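RETRY 2/3 - previous attempt timed out on the joint model. Re-submitting the same 911-residue input unchanged.
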Amino acid sequence: MAEYQFRATEKKWQAFWEKNQTFNAKDDFQKPKYYALDMFPYPSGAGLHVGHPLGYIASDIVARFKKQQGFNVLHPMGFDSFGLPAEQYAIQTGQHPAITTEQNIKRYIEQLKNIGFAYDWKREVRTSEPSFYKWTQWIFMQLFNSWYDFTDNKARPISVLIEHFEKAGNQLIKAACDEDTESFKANDWLHFSDEEKQKILLKYRIAYLSEAIVNWCPALGTVLSNDEVKDGYSERGGHPVERKKMMQWSMRISAFAERLLEGLNRLDWPEPVKEMQRNWIGKSVGAELSFEVADYQNQEIKVFTTRVDTIYGVTFMVLAPEHELVAQITTAEQKEAVEEYVKVAKNRSERERMTEVKRVSGVFTGAYAIHPFTGEKIQVWIGDYVLAGYGTGAVMAVPSDDERDLAFAQHFNLPVREVVENDKIVNSDFLTGLPIKEAIAKAVSYIEEKGIGKGKVNYRMRDAIFSRQRYWGEPVPVYFKNDIPYLLEEDQLPLELPEVDKYLPTEDGEPPLARAKNWKTEEGYELEKSTMPGWAGSSWYMFRYMDPHNSGAFVDQNKQEYWKNVDLYIGGSEHATGHLLYSRFWTKFLFDLGYITVDEPFQKMINQGMIQGRSNFVYRVEGKNTYVSKNLKDDYTTQMLHVDVNIVFNDELDIEKFRRWRPENADAEFILEDGKYICGTEIEKMSKSKHNVVNPDDVIEQYGADTLRLYEMFLGPLEQFKPWNTNGIDGTSKFLKKLWRLFHNEKGEFEVAEGEVDKKALKALHLAIQKVEYDIEHFSFNTSVSTFMICVNTLTDLKCNNKAILSDLVRIIAPYAPHICEELWELLGNKGSISEAGWPAFNPEFIKENDFTYPVSVNGKHRDNMTFAVNSPKEEIEKAVLANPVIQKWIEGKPIKKMIIVPNKIVNIVV
RNA sequence: GCCGGGAUGGUGAAAUUGGUAGACACGCAAGACUUAAAAUCUUGUGAACAUUUGUUCGUGCGGGUUCAAGUCCCGCUCCUGGCACCA
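RETRY 2/3 succeeded.
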């Protein structure tokens, strides 16, 4: 064999792995386990581009490394296969989304296998398969059948709550529930009808149905959760989103807010993602207190504040336009103005409201509130800078210490009273003179004593809307009797998606499932018509891989106890406030009910940076079919046009391919520089329309999968954003050829030497072993590739073809470039996969040096190098250094102030 | 506005506790092999000046700490990600 035949070899080993099921995880509970997972991909129609595998390659390297180290490795892949694009395509073409999805997955798997990933394909899961979503529905049922107990801080079965109600009503219980839950006694409960009981329980369930203001996206015909809306537009598709009041399923994730926040401290995650989750949860510690409304007996305005210490600075109050008291307290004179304002504010889209942040608007209600400390009468206004959804939807305005209140006060000429000076409270009766922190504590205990308020923690995070008025999602296992939701029986799962004639809403605006024939239970009760959101399946899939074919449980308890949770999770940081929060929430829930033994799903996470596209441009002379090379373009009037990056090499256009690219290019003319056509470049997102998409299959065809893997790693640190540029790929390709040549003689025949090993070769090898172990554990894959190059270069220079050295060498390169290493391992006379050949032990003895070459500096400037034995005494070094003529020249008789000798580091002389 | 991340040759980058800045590659240049090209190999390649040793400058900008700073501290500029009327 003259040269390495990468295509044939790669195919050979991919077939070998598949045939021998080399990378199947075993349920061998004796072995230490390692679970490496990539974020669940959505199989899009465009297939994988060269940016997608970046993280997959990294996790694959870790998985293979851990396997060689003797771990039982779980490294699966599957598909988050419910989702909007397949459904949008179905709407346009009438094709069932299951068919498109199936095709896309097929293509994804082909592409993934082509790269040679060590996935356990036996464990592949798809969220749109009934055998999978049966368990998504089952978990939904558990969520419906549970409530959140703030006393024990955990989710508990609803039966426990019912017992409470029977014994003591709901007055003493600390449970997460709807705002409008009325209190009742045990006796009341006993006399409620079953339906009344169900209505009450619904206010406590973790999966609950309620009327909520939702993000409605008319273009998609569905509601969206907060994390799916960006700046007033839908994240997918960029359609406008409006606020609408609708009956919706929600998840009481807000009950878990404190634990979701606290749990972050125990996770080994990138700090920015943790910070994003902290901001999203938005904890603020403060107090809630009530202001009486003047001339109304029982009306109070509740406010939340983080600065009770500024209470004496309250000069007016502001309610959100949607606040329920607005209609009741507005005086006759102000009625018209208030109604007009509320109407405008309500019709204003979220989008408009955001863009007009700086504009102050509001109107006086005519009503007054009583200041609880001073008894003063203060005006009550409404203004849309107060958000209905946060806190109590009302604020006590302290214009002296709050920018927004101040802007409002100045605009409407309301009074301002200074209460804080130099971080001390002033003009505030019993609080005067106190530092802010103490004043807050004192004010809180005062309001608690007086019974007008209490200390309170508030969270920004809202409950998550769980219904989607779409077809391609999990049906909700619920039916309705007199508008009250009831669960199906467990043995009725999975509730499969019905066939429909069209994937559109009905004429009456009902979701697509309303089109299904007989979408009812056997008894004739109507089934729920909305489906679950995209994040349902991905909130628990990491546990399914542990036991993917179990038909009796979502995961076997023993298996889960062994695999615990994900040791390494690699994916993009764009899921920070969506998937990564929801999956933590479901994990905590399942933990509370005792179904799993961990309360966090992903112990360590790494975010890979996005690979951007590097677009190429050609410059067409205006009005002609003539293209001018980049550096000559300023002499002409030109149009800059995207050109397919696949026909450009090192920014030089392949003119023949360009002529064939599009028919109109066939007779194009070119103005060249130095005989070449040079293209312009720009960094943009990889997309079809920019002609900058690079398909990994094409790269593999040309260079091989091992080269692609090495090159993606060599590009730079994993977390960094970087443009894809094939310019450097030759380097990694050449490296593999060099590696191959180490094992072959000049005639191209395989030839390795037995016997004695060269000390220098041994040192080169062990330096590499040490470095690669360090790098993999620190996720620094780019430096490993350099290390391999250095090692192979050294061994080439040494003409080393020692069998023992080369055997170790291929074992450390194998996680990165598995195909070529398998082949070499086999040529070395071994049977079976190199992935089962263990990891070479690093021996520090082999890298020990007898000498150290000191850089010698004078006044911090490097002047010469001098070699000494590693254990030379300082005196000896000092003497030799001072005797060095180069150093003497720099000292030139100046007095030596100080001589710094750091053993085996540096020598510095200060003169 | 608030909170992160970053800035090093022509390019991608490296420098693990402060200790020879630019490892390893790409590109470029020169040479070898070849009728020629490709492939491969060798040598050089931060900048400026001297060009035989050599000297000075140099990690976004301005200060500081230190024998010694890409690395630590203070102040700025630019790029980038996230959040944003959250009381």
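The longest strand of chain A covers residues 207-217. Closing ticket.
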